[in-house]
Amino acid sequence: MPELPEVETVRRGLSPAMEGQRIARADIRRPDLRWPFPPRMAERLTGARVERLRRRSKYILADLDTGETLLIHLGMSGRMTVSGLTAPFVPGQFHHTHPVAEKHDHVVLDMEGGARITFNDPRRFGAMDLMATAGLESHPLLAALGPEPLGNGFSADHLAARLKGRKGPIKALLLDQRLVAGLGNIYVCEALNRAGIHPERAGGRIGRARLDRLAQEIRTVLTEAITAGGSSLRDYRQADGELGYFQHSFRVYDREGAPCPTPDCHGTIRRIVQGGRSTYYCPACQR
Hints:
Elements: H1 4-18, E1 23-28, H2 41-45, E2 50-56, E3 59-64, E4 68-73, E5 79-83, E6 105-111, E7 116-120, E8 127-132, H3 156-163, H4 170-175, H5 185-195, H6 208-227, E9 270-274, E10 277-281
Helix pairs in contact: 1-6, 3-6, 5-6
């Protein structure tokens, strides 16, 4: 599933085609993805201007001039791509600069500037919803989310307060979106390795100095991944269809049996399963 860097990369790729542009036509090609689409979705989107495109956790949020916000979740295999970004807009002509439709192109938005936004999702675990912008924070998918790890609300102080007395393993705790929003399996593994913290260590038993380092490493690995366009392991593509390349910088994730890249560490990357997910770490330098 795309994590924060992948979703942020897609948002940045969509922004030039969507922000400040009106949706000339919304083509909804099925009644649902993971859940049913909201009533009259095509009608409510057609003619609306996208005032702002932002991200919350792993969700893309398009604020419309109608007072509603379009929530987009890529799910396991969802891709949002842009075509025709530089093409002139000709009323009624939505196809001449765009690729042939694919089988799993479920939602297509033709923008007034000529660009086409296509949501393709073979496994249909993605989602879209429309709700009043004013009440967005109370939406069931957003209401319980913790702070953004790249925002001012995330810090070692926050981690210390939320981890105090917690006996669960730090890896599982960091995946809890109520603790911090947007983190997933890949970047938690990478951040824990950089911070030298064992993934099975109890969250409440990590000292303040190590939490300082963990908070910093979480920010650093996410920033580096965004700069690299995210990580492409299976279905993920950037909005222009290109692959991300942060997977070439993985220190531990999916590197079982490889030597640890930490200087002066002679350990070997191991894989264990926590909560049904693979965890990669170095037993020599992560304590």
